[in-house]
Design brief:
Helix content is about 35%, strand content about 20%. It has 13 helices and eleven strands. Helix 5 runs antiparallel to helix 6 and helix 5 packs across helix 12.
């Protein structure tokens, strides 16, 4: 067995100076021959050409983040061609940033003895296959996602999918009739991790009650509701290590709503929410009209269930492990996204699949609709470099 099972990743990540790389090469080469093989040392020398992974790499190396991550042996990677998947505005898609956080999440799952999820998260999206659009940008065609609720990669893909679907529903509603939209945020006080699951039950029940109020039913034509849970990781805060579950909702109303007797003020929404949630205090409620450009409101209502930065606290591994355990338990098997009224009807008529359990490769965004080439470009994740590189079969 090798003396230093993680030395490959450590050396590649930390060593920047050429002389040091050569020195490390000489020092560790005797330990690296079995079972990893001599080809491991090639990247240390900054040789800019396709790298061949020899077939002494084993599945055990793959599972725990060693340099030989690929399951296929004798696969060439071109280290001069990292993944460069651009959005329509020219900014890069955050594949690298999301993927490299999965190692932290896998560590946390390992600490709470959930090896199954740790393995699934660590091997999420190891290989991405793209076609190429006429403008040179890439379109994802194939990938295998772990579908773990807290996985940063899967959360990002769900958020993109929800954004695309919500925009389609709004556009279709506006084609059929004139409407207006309201952004509504309903909150409760922060709670400890032990109380989070119960508080989410209370919030969901309260939402059903408030939607049944006659003044709300008279004013609201349809709605989309999303649950978000934030986690306070500011050590100096009085609410440190507490969780804040709250609802972001997009409400569809008539254009005349704002000047009619159906109008519900912020104070009225606060009172309605207090009664629905059966609170003994006035909760914080925000309500605002959505302007002609719906994208800002859609982005707000389609945010992550919980931001990875709120629970993947690399500076405090104990806090990270505790946070992951709390969130994983509290969000397990929950429907965090729901539709009602005309928005539910349109969503069904458009034949849109389920955001939480549906296809994460095709996210129903406008950018995906452009025709692309049939030939596929493949990119593999290399943990040591924390990057996707182009594969040459």
């Amino acid at each position: 067995a090798p003396l230093f099972p993680y030395l490959d990743t450590l050396v590649i990540t930390l060593m920047q100076n050429f002389a040091l790389k050569v020195l490390i090469f000489g020092l560790v080469k005797p330990f690296l021959t079995p079972p990893w093989g001599i080809f491991f040392c090639i990247p240390l020398l900054d040789i800019k050409k396709p790298i061949c992974y020899n077939d002494v790499a084993t599945q055990s190396n793959v599972a725990y983040g060693s340099f030989f991550y690929m399951k296929q042996h004798n696969t060439y990677l071109d280290f001069c061609q990292p993944l460069n998947d651009l959005r329509q505005n020219g900014k890069p898609q955050p594949w690298k940033e999301q993927k490299e956080q999965t190692a932290l999440l896998a560590y946390a799952y390992g600490e709470i003895l959930n090896d199954a999820k740790a393995s699934r998260v660590l091997t999420c999206a190891p290989r991405l296959s793209f076609s190429q659009k006429p403008d040179g940008r890439l379109k994802l065609e194939n990938a295998v996602f772990c579908r773990v609720r807290l996985c940063p990669v899967c959360q990002w893909r769900r958020s993109l999918k929800l954004f695309g679907q919500t925009k389609q529903v709004i556009d279709e509603i506006n084609k059929r009739q004139k409407t207006a939209f309201i952004m509504l945020t309903l909150t409760v006080k922060n709670v400890d991790g032990l109380d989070l699951s119960n508080e989410i039950d209370i919030i969901h029940s309260a939402w059903q009650r408030i939607m049944q109020r006659k003044e709300v039913k008279r004013a609201v034509l349809g709605w989309q509701r999303c649950l978000e849970v934030t986690h306070n990781v500011e050590f100096k805060s009085s609410s440190y290590n507490t969780f804040h579950p709250h609802i972001h909702a997009l409400l569809c109303v008539r254009p005349s709503y704002f000047k009619s007797r159906d109008y519900i003020s912020r104070e009225q929404w606060t009172q309605l929410w207090r009664e629905a949630a059966r609170l003994d205090y006035d909760p914080q409620v925000w309500v605002s009209r959505v302007k002609d450009d719906h994208e800002g409101a859609v982005a707000e209502v389609t945010k992550y269930a919980s931001k990875p930065g709120d629970y993947l606290t690399a500076w405090d591994l104990d806090l990270m492990t505790e946070s992951v355990e709390v969130l994983d338990s509290a969000l397990h098997r929950r429907r965090l996204i729901a539709y009602g009224g005309i928005m539910k009807t349109i969503h069904k008529e458009l034949g849109l699949d389920d955001v939480e359990n549906g296809d994460l490769v095709h996210t129903d965004n406008e950018e995906e609709k452009a025709e692309a080439t049939a030939a596929l470009l493949h990119f593999e994740w290399v943990p040591g470099y924390r990057q996707y590189f182009k594969a040459r079969e």
